[in-house]
Structure formats: structure tokens, C-alpha cells
Design brief:
The chain is an alpha+beta fold. It has 4 domains: 47-286, no CATH class; 348-427, PAS domain (Beta-Lactamase, 2-Layer Sandwich); 510-664, Histidine kinase-like ATPase, C-terminal domain (Heat Shock Protein 90, 2-Layer Sandwich); 718-876, Four Helix Bundle (Hemerythrin (Met), subunit A), CATH 1.20.120.160. A hairpin with a 2-residue loop joins strand 1 and strand 2 (93-97). Helix 10 packs parallel to helix 14 (632-641).
Length: 877
């Protein structure tokens, strides 16, 4: 996966500068720490080396002390090269002339000859140690036998005593004598080491004093002390002025490797090193300025570069924050809106909601219902009582029971979410819902019983009224006023609807699924409502061009009633404008048809649309109230539910209403592609102005097998059998005028008038004109000649034998299935064949069959088909 470089926004730039500044500061601090550690480690190593050398020197002279004492006590005497001379320098101070001029021997106090000889022997012994030494070495021997102090050194004490400093030196030596006597009086101290000393009178450098006590039976203790110089132990790595040696046991002992600590009072780093096997601690004060000076001398360019980068980054960060970044007090408007939305959402919760912070013990967010309960609840105890994240608790506040659900946040563990639900109110709401459901069910039952009683009361009287009105209209059509007749028919229709609705709701009505022709049903619906459409001067457009399979399985009576009721409701609700009825097949399912009725009326109110679920809950508009009722929409919805169909209504005020019905009607057997169509080889010139009507007519012609041309696409000399137009002035020669008016607009025998919305009317007009054309052609050539010539032609005889036999079989099968629409088409086709062959008797039989089909006289149709079959058999013999 490729790394995506983020966009360099001011916020990202600020974060980058902060990261860079942090890295630079860490690098600078790390460099300081590593440099300081290196310097401290270097000084610590030098101090450790010094401590080790000091330990070796102390152990060496500890051994020499014992060796000198053993020689003195065991009486071992060394041979002196010459006589011993003693001279008095000051009262009580005697100088012994040693054999070597580099070693001076002094005895303080009265002493015996043995002490003098012992001092000379020790002087001779120390000559081998100090003769070539450049530093001052001094030995103090406090003799316990005569209490004299012998001082042996490689310094120049005799010359110093002879000068004016002699008194100071004598007092210093007297102080040493007191130290030794004090140690002699201490019974448990056999050896001691002094702190670091710098006495310019006795030594030219720094030194320490090693004192050793030797006990002798019958005498005072003998003390032997050495002034051990330390200047030669330092290899110029340490500053001896900053060196301190302590013998105080209160100084804490550190590890063998030593330690260090920061001394803020002296602004230094104190390095501590203990001297093994000796009660001494060496302290070296390393000044901080010395450390900083060493670091600067070593890595000055690197420090300068890092400091420059830090200053540059800090300046850039300040510039970006000042110019690019928003003020820290400014709140992002989107974040503020989100916070306001959160508060609004919580406030409008239908239950109590609360967020509790367990760490701070306060409520972060709540709504009105939870605020009412806060003062009565202890949320800390409720959190402790909840054993799982979704614990349910019950609390009682003011005799009201609340159900509390506790949830611990998975994001912030110390946030606890509480929801409160009032159980008393929920029980009341549940009870009210149950009561409302019972009342609704009771209302439905009462409504069904009322409709049933109403139907039983009015069905028989209304049937008698309908019969009487039909007889009266048949004998005297103008006797009854039109409004009275219309009112009686509306009342009769309402009674029939109530009666059928009772059957549907009681389960007494069963759907009679049979083969139906949707096109014929649509034609019947339009024919029945054509009068009211003409009276209201409304343009009705029926678009059935997308109906691929007109033959379906369904209940013809139900579908006719549903479409008629909805279309009449739409017509009466439309004051002026246009109504479009469109039926199409859904792309996903072949058994579902979508029938839409769209009008340009004032629209249905929301209250009126509720009649689709609850009949008579709202009144219909005044324009519809004359014939339609509040039961019509509910009636259609209940009928559609019988075959799993639905009705939906979409309406907008002053724009119109869309009635949408989804019909579940499975298609019948597929029509064979090679079956001959009724208008095969017929060419029609389509000259229609309206685009939508022209599209519908063209699709119908293709379905019937005809071919069509447009005037603008027709080339010179191309012949057409007839013309279809919606303009009477465009009619020329043979033509069909499409119109919605009932009055006749054409008088020429070669011109026919058809209703544009009734497919059967258009097809009949085209077939009649084709038959007239064939008849005129036959008459022009002479009846006998044509007849003889046609029967003498083997081609026409074979066509007659193949087509007529097949059509006769269709007539018999279609009359058995009561498929009158298909029966009419087959009879039309046979009549055209007989007319073409000038067989007038066969043509007469077909015309009789067509007339009987219109009257649905099945018995007469069967007899006529038998007579026609006998005639065809006689022709084929």
C-alpha cells in the first residue's frame, strides 16, 4: 500500500513544526546528557585511579609501621656507619646527625639513649624510602617508654626551626603530639587516618596522616604516624584544590564503582569514591562551569547548529500560529452545531436520558424527564449495583415506577449512560392501544353489519326499480328527466357496490379466473363512460400501446367494475383538461400490469384520500358527490385485494391526481409468431398531428400486422391502402377519421369515423374499408369472370383450402371458450376472404355471425358456424 502524503494545510504545518521542534529539543538534551555523562565518567575514572593509588600507599605504610615497631620492640639493631651526634636546636628539641644529609631527625622532649639510637636506626631505614623523593615525607614516633616524640623527614625542618618560623613549626608538631596522645587514650582505635591536610610549614603539598597505635605491657602506648603526600598520585587529571578526603563515618558509603550527586549550593557535581579497607571517602567537587566549558570546547559547532534550528523552528511555529491558526478561544462552527444538535436530540428523546461521569461525580448531559428524577437518585450506588453493562433496575419515585437501563460506555469507561422509562405510563398506553384496537375492530364489525342490513333492505326494491326503469326507457326514452334517471342509476350502483362488498368481506365471493381480453374490457369501459366524457368536454387518451399480451387470466366482471369506478371517479373530479389511461406491463414480472389513470383535476384532499381505507370517513367534493360516493375508493381496493392487486393514489392540489393500480393477471398461452394477423399485408398512411396519439395508433397497427408510413417519409409513387388521420380536411380517397365525438363528421362512403380510444372501433373501420375496396375491385372486373378466373387458379384454391379450414377450426374452439373478441376477429378475416373471392353466400354467413357475436347469442352462433362449415365443405368437394 502506498503511503499517502497528507495535504499541507496550516494545521498540518503546525503539527509538523511542533514535531520538528520536539525532536530538536530531545536531540539537544540528549547531546547535553551524553556529553555530561562522558565528562563525569572521565573524571570518575581519574578519581577511581587516584583512590586505588591512595589505598596502595596506605597499605604500604601500614606494613612499614608494623615493621618499624617490630624492629624497635624485638631489639633488632642495625649497624650504623658512624657515631650518633646530638645537638640542641631549641630547649627540648634535639637534632640527631644522621648518616645521610637528605634525612633529618629531630627528638622533641627528654629522652633516653635508646630512643636516640632508635631514631637513628629509623632514619637510616627511611633513607632507603625517601632519599630520592621530591615530596615531603614525615614520620612521627611517639615512644611510650619515655614519652618522647621523634620526627624523621626528608624536609628541611632544622633550617626552618632556626629561622623565625621555628615557633610555628614547634606548635604544629606539638599539635601532632596531642593528636597521637588522644589516639593513645582511645582504647578501641588502633589505627586512624586524618583528613586531607595542606600545611605549608610541614609539607609543600597536600597529604594525609596515617596513625597506628602499638600497646606495650607496662608502658604507655607507642604511636607511629606518617604524613603521606598525595600530589604524586594525581596524573594531572584532577584538580587537587577541589579534592576532599573525609574520615568521618557519617559520610554515606557508596558502591565500589562510586556515585555522584548534584550540589546546588556549590553549583557543582560531587563525585564520591570510598577507599577500600580504609575508613576514608574521597570527594571531588566538579564545578558545573567546568563541565559546561568542557562540553562547549568539545562540541561547540553542534550546539550552535541545534540552537539555531530550535530558534528558527520556534519562530516559524509562532508565525504560523499567529497568521494561519484560528484563535484558541474560537470554536469551530460545525463543532458548535454538532453540540447543539446533540443537546436537541437528547432533549427530544421519548424517554429519560442521562450521562453520568463517575470520576467527577457529576451529570454531563440530561433531558427534562431525567432532570425530574436526578434529585431522588444516587447514581454512584446505581453504578455499583449494576453487575453487567446492560443491567435493568427498577426505581420508585413519588409512587411512580421507572425502569432504568444502565450502560457503561465502551469508549470512555468512566462514562455511564442511564435511560429511564415510566412503566405506569407505558402500561396505560398499552391498555389504551388495546382498547382502541378493540373499538376499531368493533367499528369494522358494526360497519359490515350495517352494510349487510342495508344491502338486504335495498337490494330487492332497487332490482325492481332497475327493471321498471329499463322497460320504461326502452318504450319511452324521453319520458324520464335526465337528472332523475342519473340519480336512480347512481343509487342503484351504490346498492350493487354495497351488496358485492358484503360478499367480498364475508368470503362469499370467489374470483372466477378465465381467459379475458383486456383490450375488449378497456373498449367496453370507454364506451360506457363516453357520454359523460363528451358532456364534460374532457380529452381522454387511452394508451395501450405497451400491452404486449392482451389475453390474460382473470375475472372480467371484477376488472370491469374496478376500472369503470376509478375512471368515473376521475372524470367527475376533473372540471376541465385531460385524462390519460395507460396500461403497461412491468419489466420484472410478466404477470403484473400497471394501470394508471392521471387527470388534471383540482386534486383530492388528504381527508378524501382516507376513504381508501375507511369508507365514508370524509365527504367527497361537490363535483363528485352527484354520482360517486365515499365508498368507491374502498370498494375498488377491496376488489383488487381479491387477486393480490393494489391501489395507490397520489394527488397534488390544483395539479391533478394519479390513480395507480397494480394488477396481477397471468398471461394466457403465448401467441405463435407465425400466426397470420388480421391486417397482414395492409399498408396505412398515418397522418395524425398529436404525437402521443400517433404513437398509440402506430403500435396498434403493428400489433394487427399492418404497415404504416408518414406523409413526410413517403416517397413519390408509393401506394397505401388507406389513410388514418385526426383532421377531417386531410381525408383523401380511402380513410379513417379518428375522433372522440359521437356525431358523424364524414359522409363519403369511402370514409369511416372511429373512436380514437376504442381499439375495436378503429379496427372495424379499417376492415370495412378493406372489404369495400375488395368489393369494388371485383365488381369492376365482372362477377362471373372473376369468380371463374379465381376458382380456375390453383393458387387461390390452395390459399382458400389452407386458410379457411384453419379459421373454421378456430371458430369452433373460440365459441366453446366464449372468447367473443377472438371470435369476432376470426369472423372478420373469413368475411374478407369470401369478399375477395366474390363468394356472397359465405360473406353473408360471416355477417350473420358478427351480428350474433355482438348480441352474445351462443346458440345461434353455433348454428351459423355449422351452416358455414357445410358451405365450405361443398366448395372444397
Amino acid at each position: 500500500m502506498l503511503f499517502k502524503i497528507p495535504e499541507m494545510t496550516p494545521n498540518n504545518l503546525r503539527k509538523l513544526l511542533i514535531l520538528l521542534l520536539t525532536l530538536l529539543i530531545i536531540s539537544f538534551i540528549s547531546l547535553l546528557y551524553s556529553s555530561t555523562s562522558a565528562i563525569i565518567e572521565q573524571q570518575g575514572s581519574a578519581l577511581s585511579s587516584f583512590t586505588h593509588s591512595l589505598q596502595n600507599r596506605i597499605e604500604k605504610y601500614r606494613y612499614i609501621s608494623w615493621q618499624i615497631f617490630d624492629s624497635a620492640t624485638q631489639g633488632t639493631t642495625a649497624t650504623l656507619p658512624g657515631p650518633i651526634n646530638q645537638s640542641t636546636i631549641q630547649p627540648g628539641i634535639y637534632a640527631i646527625s644522621p648518616p645521610s644529609p637528605k634525612i633529618e631527625t629531630l627528638i622533641f622532649g627528654e629522652h633516653e639513649l635508646a630512643t636516640q639510637n632508635l631514631a637513628a636506626q629509623i632514619s637510616q631505614y627511611t633513607e632507603t624510602l625517601w632519599a630520592s623523593a621530591k615530596l615531603t615525607w614525615t614520620l612521627y614516633y611517639l615512644n611510650g617508654e619515655d614519652n618522647s616524640l621523634a620526627v624523621i623527614t626528608n624536609g628541611h625542618l632544622i633550617k626552618t626551626l632556626n629561622r623565625y618560623e621555628g615557633r610555628n613549626i614547634a606548635s604544629s608538631i606539638a599539635g601532632r603530639r596531642n593528636e597521637m596522645l588522644q589516639q593513645a587514650n582511645t582504647l578501641d582505635e588502633k589505627e586512624s587516618v586524618s583528613a586531607l591536610r595542606r600545611n605549608q610549614q610541614l609539607s609543600r603539598g597536600a597529604f594525609i596522616t596515617l596513625r597506628t597505635t602499638f600497646n606495650q605491657p607496662g608502658h604507655l602506648a607507642t604511636i607511629l604516624a606518617f604524613d603521606l603526600p598525595i600530589d604524586d598520585l594525581n596524573n594531572n587529571a584532577l584538580d587537587l584544590s577541589a579534592l576532599q578526603i573525609h574520615n568521618d563515618e557519617s559520610v554515606p558509603k557508596k558502591s565500589a564503582k562510586g556515585s555522584y550527586f548534584l550540589n546546588l549550593s556549590a553549583l557543582s557535581i560531587d563525585l564520591l569514591r570510598p577507599v577500600p579497607s580504609v575508613p576514608l571517602t574521597v570527594t571531588y567537587d566538579l564545578p558545573l562551569m567546568t563541565v559546561f566549558s568542557a562540553m562547549i570546547d568539545e562540541l561547540l559547532p553542534v550546539y550552535l547548529i541545534l540552537l539555531a534550528l530550535i530558534l528558527l523552528t520556534t519562530g516559524a511555529l509562532c508565525f504560523v500560529r499567529e497568521n494561519k491558526s484560528p484563535s484558541p478561544h474560537q470554536v469551530d462552527p460545525w463543532v458548535e452545531k454538532l453540540q447543539q444538535f446533540t443537546h436537541e436530540l437528547v432533549k427530544n428523546f421519548p424517554m429519560g436520558y442521562l450521562i453520568y461521569d463517575a470520576n467527577q461525580g457529576k451529570i454531563l448531559l440530561s433531558n427534562d424527564m431525567s432532570d425530574h428524577l436526578v434529585q431522588h437518585l444516587n447514581f454512584k450506588k446505581m453504578v455499583d449495583m449494576s453487575s453487567n453493562p446492560f443491567e435493568l433496575l427498577q426505581v420508585t419515585v413519588n409512587n411512580e415506577i421507572y425502569q432504568v437501563r444502565h450502560h457503561t460506555s465502551q469508549i470512555i469507561s468512566h462514562y455511564h449512560i442511564f435511560t429511564f422509562r415510566e412503566q405506569n405510563r407505558e402500561q396505560q398506553v398499552t391498555q389504551q392501544l388495546q382498547n382502541a384496537q378493540a373499538v376499531l375492530q368493533k367499528n369494522h364489525t358494526l360497519r359490515r353489519q350495517f352494510f349487510e342490513q342495508l344491502s338486504n333492505t335495498f337490494s330487492r326494491p332497487m332490482h325492481q326499480v332497475d327493471t321498471a326503469i329499463a322497460e320504461l326507457v326502452a318504450t319511452a326514452p324521453t319520458l324520464l328527466p335526465h337528472r332523475l334517471l342519473q340519480g336512480i342509476r347512481s343509487l342503484s350502483r351504490l346498492t350493487r357496490h354495497i351488496e358485492m362488498l358484503n360478499k367480498v368481506e364475508s368470503g362469499g365471493y370467489s374470483v372466477d379466473k378465465q381467459s379475458i381480453d383486456l383490450q375488449q374490457i378497456l373498449d367496453d369501459v370507454i364506451a360506457e363512460n363516453q357520454q359523460i366524457i363528451t358532456e364534460k368536454a374532457i380529452l381522454l387518451v387511452v394508451d395501450n400501446s405497451e400491452l404486449t399480451h392482451a389475453t390474460r387470466l382473470g375475472d372480467k366482471t371484477l376488472i370491469f367494475q374496478i376500472i369503470t369506478t376509478i375512471l368515473r371517479y376521475s372524470i367527475e373530479n376533473t372540471v376541465w383538461g385531460k385524462i390519460k389511461l395507460k396500461i403497461s406491463q412491468t419489466a420484472e414480472y410478466a404477470d403484473r400490469l400497471l394501470l394508471e389513470i392521471v387527470d388534471t383535476g383540482p386534486g383530492l384532499s388528504a381527508q378524501e384520500q382516507e376513504n381508501i381505507d375507511f369508507p365514508f370517513i370524509s365527504e367527497v367534493s361537490t363535483d363528485v358527490a352527484d354520482s360517486s360516493t365515499s365508498l368507491d375508493l374502498f370498494f375498488c381496493k377491496q376488489l383488487l385485494a381479491l387477486f393480490d392487486s393494489t391501489l395507490t393514489i397520489e394527488s397534488k392540489s390544483h395539479i391533478g391526481t394519479r390513480y395507480q393500480m397494480l394488477l396481477v393477471l397471468p398471461p394466457e398461452n403465448e401467441v405463435a409468431e407465425d400466426e397470420e394477423k388480421i391486417l397482414e399485408d395492409v399498408r396505412v398512411l398515418v397522418n395524425i398531428v398529436a404525437d402521443d396519439i400517433r404513437h398509440i395508433v402506430c403500435r396498434q397497427l403493428l400489433r394487427w400486422g399492418a404497415k404504416y408510413d408518414f406523409p413526410e417519409d413517403r416517397y413519390s409513387g408509393q401506394q397505401c391502402d388507406l389513410m388514418i388521420t385526426d383532421d377531417v380536411e386531410q381525408l383523401d380517397d380511402w380513410g379513417v377519421l379518428l375522433t372522440t365525438q359521437s356525431e358523424m363528421l364524414v359522409s363519403d362512403p369511402r370514409h369511416k369515423q372511429a373512436n380514437i380510444n376504442i381499439s375495436r372501433s378503429v379496427l372495424d373501420a379499417i376492415i370495412v374499408l378493406i372489404e369495400q375496396q375488395i368489393g369494388e375491385d371485383v365488381l369492376s372486373q365482372g362477377e362471373e369472370a372473376v369468380s371463374t378466373s379465381l376458382w380456375e387458379s390453383s393458387e387461390y384454391y390452395s390459399i382458400f383450402e389452407q386458410t379457411v379450414k384453419e379459421d373454421m377450426d378456430k371458430l369452433r374452439s373460440e365459441i366453446m371458450q366464449d372468447d367473443y373478441s377472438a371470435l369476432a376477429l376470426t369472423a372478420h378475416r373469413l368475411k374478407g376472404v369470401f369478399a375477395m373471392l366474390n363468394l356472397q353466400k359465405g360473406k353473408t354467413y360471416c355477417e350473420e355471425i358478427e351480428h350474433q357475436i355482438e348480441q352474445h347469442q351462443k346458440l345461434n352462433i353455433t348454428n351459423s358456424i355449422s351452416e358455414l362449415q357445410n358451405y365450405v365443405d361443398s366448395l372444397l368437394q
